[in-house]
Prior knowledge:
The structure is a single chain. The chain is α+β, with helices and mostly antiparallel strands. Among the domains are: 178 residues, Nucleotidyltransferase, domain 5, CATH 3.30.420; 155 residues, no CATH class. The protein is built from 13 helices and 29 strands. The strands form six sheets. A seven-stranded mixed beta sheet has the order 17-16-10-11-12-18-22, sandwiched between helices. Strands 1, 2, 3, 4, 8 and 9 form a six-stranded mixed beta sheet that branches. Strand 1 and strand 2 form a beta hairpin. The longest helix has 28 residues.
Amino acid sequence: xxxxxxxxxxIAIDYGTTFTGxxxxxxxxxxxxxxxxxxxxxxxxxNPRNASNQKVPSEVAYSEKGFDWGNKIQPRNRHREAWTKxxxxxxxxxxxxxxxxxxxxxxxxxNGSRSKNNVSKEPVDIVSDFLTGVRKHVETALEIxxxxxxxxxxxxxxxxxxxxxxxxxxxxxYKAVCNAGFNxxxxxxSMITEPEAAAIYAxxxxxxxxxxxxxxxxxxxxxxxxxxxVDIITYRVESTKDAFVIKEAVVGTGDKCGAIFIDREFKSWxxxxxxxxxxxxxxxxxxxxxxxxxxxxxxxxMSFEDDNIMALVTMPPEISRENDEALDIxxxxxxxxxxxxxxxxxxxxxxxxxxxxxxxxxxxxxxxKVKYILVAGGFGKSMYLLKRIRExxxxxxxxVIRPSNSWSAVVRGAVMEKLDPVGKSLVQLRLCRRxxxxxxxxxxxxxxHGSVPDENVILDKSTGVRFVKGCMTWILSKGDxxxxxxxxxxxxxxxxxxxxxxxxxxxxxxxxxxxxxxxxRKVKGLxxxxxxxxxxxxxxxxxxxxxxxxxxxxIKMVACKVDIKIEGSMLEFRVRVGDRECCRAxxxxx
Length: 590
């Protein structure tokens, strides 16, 4: 068994809003992994001029012949599905569709599921198609690297996901990865949050570099600023002996204020600059990501440092056929001075600063202090963002660090986590991001259930006891600590009378609540994350407990132990009745 555990191929997939990265590492012994053990796929097909790049555009274009993906999409193809990741979180779908409309996403259908080519596709299917192309290319690269030994290797596929994503979004991502063919025989699929993966890579980077003064008790904020989402999590260093051990100190937060929303701000700024009439003359194709205008703005965006250098952005011919001194247009290009760029950047940058400030405030409320801010991700490459973070927090003696390979830090960190031969996670404690509970039937109590509608009250004729349906029993609260190596156990009670008869199985639905105060009854806004099918055949006597209903009535309740353990970014629920395990389910099994 130990020999099998020492031989593994880890493949990490960082499916991003704008770009996707894949990295891999091979463990064939008990040596702790280093940066040199990780390889990023950097020969994506269709790269211009045989360029090397660590990521590929997260885009698909459909035609009668099938589909192209990434760099293989021809510039003339105007019907491409981009930013589909935003639609995977169905709990936020209405908000996402508004965002997509604001981003001028004409290439996606009005409901996010139909392209201009009349190819009916759900978001999860579009992602599956894209990842199918990715998988085929990755397989080719691995065959070249490992040759005949590839088939003999046990595989671990790691999917990175935003920290603030719902369980439903994680489920759809998992489904897309499986549909793309990554779930081959002898393969285990797991998940890790993007900021956690970034933290793992950054700490290893610091460990190998000059920052050797990190000590137990130090707090650091991870700012994973990507193309679509920005995730912020704060960790506390528990140990630096042999290897870093950290724990989450504050519940992670995030927002959709990544790099693509700077594009939205640019379009809004341009509309105001040239006026409604001229802006309305611009053809839609010039507003899409692949257009000459948006590509030139992308270059200006990534090189902006808030210095005195003017940015030049190619303008559509409809508004640039003639030079216009008032609009700073000359020879088809518009000049943007640093003040213009700040106006475009600052709405997103200020939201990032607010997220970081909130985390620092939470740490301060614990009588502690943040020592470092680690910045990673595609948007994290922005020198202007880095400068603003440093300006805001330098007065608090907080050091702002961007690790090497910051754009690929997430996918590299995901590989590092799974390559460790000890199998012990660097993050030993995480904080629950939502409330989790079960919708159960409970004995009627006037003080608690007096206002419950009659249709929710049922009478057990055999005992004369009334029961109330849809009562919430909360088994995990937002902010609860979850140890990586230890399950958290709670108890739920099921009336035995409801399990009598020929049917000895009982379904318990696990529901999640995002807000601060969870409801006492099943209400709109609860999200079902999984179903526990509990087999109550041959109940052991010790599992029955007597509950007093009144002075004259008692009933028997079945005591079910629920063990909750965190697996990467997923929660695993196991149910025990007595000493027997009845069922288990991951939060993605909705």
